[in-house]
Write a structure and sequence with these properties.
This protein is mainly beta. It has a 6-stranded antiparallel sheet with strand order 4-5-1-2-3-6, with no helix packed on it. It is built from no helices and 6 strands. A hairpin with a 2-residue loop joins strand 4 and strand 5.
């Protein structure tokens, strides 16, 4: 398994809807890049400029909204993940 370092978070994007609420099927190029993801693993937290520990605000299993083009995409054992900094996470979806 991949274990992020510092204040980084390993996420897996949740697939975009292929149909609209009214039942229209969207072509793959008409779909927006998904921004909702599931937290797979978190790092231990980082340090601020004064050396104080930054606590992680997300936990494994959280659904989150991330900045549209943030993070580093990786493929591990056939699955695509993204590693983002905690500051690139905009919200937790409840």
């Amino acid at each position: 398994m991949i274990k992020p370092l510092s204040d980084r978070v390993l996420i897996k994007m949740i697939e975009a809807e292929e149909t609209t609420k009214s039942g229209i099927i969207l072509a793959s190029n008409a779909q927006e890049k998904p921004q909702i993801a599931e937290v797979i693993e978190i790092g231990p937290g980082g340090l601020d400029s004064e050396g104080n520990k930054i606590e992680m605000q997300v936990k494994k299993g959280d659904k989150i909204i991330t900045s549209k083009y943030s993070g580093t995409e990786i493929k591990y054992e056939g699955t695509e993940y993204i590693i983002v900094k905690q500051s690139d996470i905009l919200a937790i979806v409840e």
